[in-house]
Design a protein that fits this description.
alpha/beta; single chain; 569 residues; 2-enoyl-CoA Hydratase, Chain A, domain 1; six-stranded parallel sheet
Length: 569
């Protein structure tokens, strides 16, 4: 009966997928944004039966709509309980502004820009639209950018746990929450620098879009939160106050009686697929970089960048004779040095075979996430992308005092002087500590040498911008760490040029590893060969939703989206 139910459901999915919707003339696309957009679809049962519209699929759809005479405009509806990262916001802003440049009417409605939380990212996105509607009791919580980090040093001391963390160098502060009682001067310096630069980007872009004086906009930010929607209108921060029904009525009054509102997903399903055999491969490295996994980080329940999967994706792309270039999309704070090295080697092999690789950075591409981009012919970053963090750390939690408090006595036997050096029960010996430092020195030196060679920067200059420092994309450009500011579309256009395609030539963007067919996915479900396309994968999705809701409930006092970007740096 279970198998029969699955087959019936599959038949329904296939039927729906082949059902072509007709898009009428004089239509508005309706885009609901209720949280972060995935770089690529998560591999689980939910995505199997209801594929999500990923960030770049959404942008491609918006770009197609900008050329479609049937589309009169787009209505963006914001209800963001989980803010979109600023790198992604900048990419979406570019797509919306392109629609405006093509004569489309772009309007946004939000019930509130932040409710007991920051509304910076959602308002940043909204400012790219021609009209902003705010619900009468809505707030404008454009209070600036901030981050709070919990420091556990005293807590660990209380229970007899010591975090012995070695780092290269002082600005490599990812583990400071374990080793310090508060912000170190280096940690504070980097955080203040990045947040200040992001605020400058926000003020510059929003002031230009809303035709406001930058100094005046900065005063409004310091005045915020603005709880009076009418006051926000008088400040020219929004254009109208009203409910969504009033916006619908306003749009219909200005258009033909036949005006239709079409969901962006419905519209995307009608778009024709590009035919031909000229391809650019798209390979993703999203999440913490790990040697292997089931696709989910057990601590955050978020996607991870599986080094072996990415290596195989490059291998398969290079075997395809129709692939003429590769766009390597990175949204990762780093992770395992060995896993990062595996991916770096895969990009190097593509380069050696003469296949252009263009790296495109999303919200963050730092530490190992920056290293894997180095062999690329060009590196493209958003202005707000957190990048750099050239450095390394390693160590362990030492728990011997904890066990003494618990009256538990550990004893061990070893053959080999350092056989137990990785265990947390005992502190490092002098010889073990020497080995650890040697390992970190080796990784750090190789990292800097790779930066020096790839970016053509003298090694002594690399050291000045390394030391674990993190930079925004625009700062990274000035320091020679990236080549150009822009979104993934910019990276794709560079890849087309590098591959020798003519301007306007139809090119297929194919994601590697290739998506399985419906029958292939069904086989994995029935055989249990995939842990993510399974009940466990669905439970992970459920737990991820719970974690997301819990973060919202707790606000941003312990864990903000900005803080998470720095955790891996």
């Amino acid at each position: 009966m279970t198998l029969f139910s699955i087959v019936l459901t599959l038949a329904g999915v296939i039927f729906v997928s082949f059902k072509v919707q007709k898009i009428p003339e004089d239509s508005y696309l309706e885009l609901f944004l209720e949280g972060p957009l995935e770089e690529r679809a998560t591999k689980n049962l939910q995505s199997f039966f209801k594929p999500p519209l990923t960030l770049h699929a959404l942008i491609d759809t918006l770009n197609h709509a900008s050329r479609d005479a049937r589309i009169r405009g787009i209505l963006v509806r914001l209800n963001q309980q989980s803010p979109i990262g600023l790198g992604h916001v900048q990419e979406l802003r570019n797509a919306l502004k392109k629609l405006v440049s093509k004569g489309k009417h772009v309007v946004v409605h939000s019930d509130t820009f932040g409710e007991n939380s920051s509304g910076m990212s959602s308002y940043y996105l909204a400012s790219a639209c021609q009209e902003i509607w705010l619900q009468p009791l809505g707030s404008l919580n454009i209070t600036g950018f901030g981050v709070e980090i919990p420091f556990l040093r005293k807590f660990l001391d209380e229970y007899g746990v010591k975090a012995h963390i070695l780092r290269r160098e002082e600005y490599k502060t990812a583990m400071n929450f374990l080793t310090h009682e508060g912000l170190s001067p280096q940690n504070r310096e980097d955080l203040e620098n990045i947040l200040s630069l992001r605020l400058k980007q926000f003020i510059k872009d929003v002031a230009a879009d809303r035709k406001l004086n930058q100094d005046q906009l900065e005063k409004y930010i310091h005045l915020a939160p603005i709880f009076n929607a009418q006051m926000a209108k008088e400040m020219k921060l929004v254009d109208h106050t009203g409910f969504i029904e009033e916006l619908y009525a306003s749009l219909r009054a200005k258009a033909k009686p036949s005006l239709k509102f079409i969901s962006i997903k419905q519209y995307a399903s009608t778009l024709p697929k590009i035919k031909g055999n000229k391809k650019i491969a798209v390979i993703y490295a999203v999440g913490a970089i790990m040697r292997s996994s089931d696709g989910i980080n057990p601590l955050s329940l978020e996607s991870i960048a599986n080094a072996e999967e990415i290596r195989k994706a490059f291998e398969d792309a290079l075997k395809d004779p129709h692939v003429k270039a590769i766009v390597f999309r990175i949204d990762s704070p780093g992770g395992s040095a060995i896993a990062s090295d595996t991916i770096w080697g895969a990009v190097e092999r593509a380069k050696a075979k003469g296949i252009p690789v263009i790296a495109s950075m999303g919200n963050v591409a730092a530490s190992g996430g920056y290293m894997v981009a180095l062999p690329a012919q060009k590196i493209v970053a958003n202005p707000a992308t957190v990048t750099g963090s050239i450095g390394v750390y390693g160590g362990k939690l030492v728990t011997d005092s904890l066990w003494k408090k618990l009256k538990i006595n550990w004893q061990g036997v070893k053959v080999g002087q350092k056989a137990l050096m990785w265990e947390s029960v005992k502190e490092y010996s002098t010889e073990e500590l020497k080995s650890m430092n040697g390992s970190l020195d080796q990784i750090y030196e190789v990292f800097m040498q790779r930066v020096s060679k790839a970016r053509n920067i003298p090694l002594n200059e690399v050291h000045k911008i390394a030391q674990g420092h993190v930079w925004t994309g625009d700062e990274a450009l000035k320091k020679g760490l990236v080549d150009i500011l822009g979104d993934m579309e910019v990276a794709v256009n560079i890849a087309k040029q590098q591959a020798g395609f003519k301007e306007g030539e139809a090119v297929i963007l194919e994601v590697f590893p290739r998506e399985l067919s419906l029958l292939g996915k069904l086989k994995l479900i029935l055989t249990g060969e995939s842990l993510t396309l399974s009940v466990q994968g669905s439970l992970n999705s459920l737990l991820k939703s719970f974690v997301s809701s819990f973060k919202v409930f707790m606000g941003t006092c312990l864990y903000s989206s900005t803080a998470s970007e720095f955790e891996g740096n």
